[in-house]
Task: structure prediction
Amino acid sequence: MDSNSKIYIAYQDIPLHIFGSGLERTHEEIPLEYLNFSDAPELTQSTNPHRHNFYEVLYVTAGVGTHFIDFNAYPIEPNTFYFISPGQVHYWNTTVPIEGDILIFTDDFLLLAPSDYMVLRELSFFHTVEGSPALKLNETDHFQVTQLYRAIAEEFKAYDFRAASVLRSYLHILLVQIQRIYAIQEAKAGDGQDKIAQKLTRQFKQLITKQFVTGQPVQDYAGQLSVSVNHLNKTVKATTGHTPGQLIRQEIVLEAKRLFQHTDLTATEIGYRLAFDDPSYFGRFFKREVGVSPGQFRQDMSGRTL
Result:
């Protein structure tokens, strides 16, 4: 079984929203959609745990409730971004409907040129293991962002000559602007760590969130990042307190927890989907990493909202 097949199997039991499905597409020829939360609320404000095969940038301007992303709860607040990466499980629990704008897009739209892959790798808010997928804006940042959103909305509606190129450029500008704001907030809350080390660690984390099911050793990730295994080990340990191997195991455990919480799959089936051929070894692995057996974890989570 190849690595792509393994990734598909790991994702198939939790409802997966496919780009373009369930929505009336505005422009069929480009893998980007601009909409607001009032459009198809059964999808944009879904209360059912699900994930996507695309990226979402959600800008909430009003609403009351909670946004659940994997096993964390985030209060719904005005002037706040929420970022959803492919594969993450999320859903909403609202008492007042959400208002705001949504941008959804695929890798294919953002990554037109090889150099664009670095843009995605440099974004702190996608494929993050430890950082927050939520970002609250101050008044100044809110004004700048809403100007960009307005430009995107107008271009999306007009869809004039070379609109796809213009929209891709606007999306790049928006993501870079968000990254600047995110970095400032990270710096205020951080401990002055080396930015180069943080960047390498972030890129490593982003890779493992996409590739953990393939069972790649650390040296394969180091090769993709064009660094030595020793350098990757030292950098990741210094910036996170964990070794690269520990972060890979954390991502495997997160996916196992998702499947235990949101599906009826047995421990054996979940282990198989995560490339464990021996069910007993998967059980020992899970208990070692989580502290409880798979059965106890599922029992503890029964009836909880996360």
User: Anything to note?
Assistant: Residues 206 and 257 are 19 Å apart (CA to CA). Residues 3-189 form a domain with the Jelly Rolls fold (CATH 2.60.120.280). The longest strand covers residues 90-105. The chain has a mean pLDDT of 87.
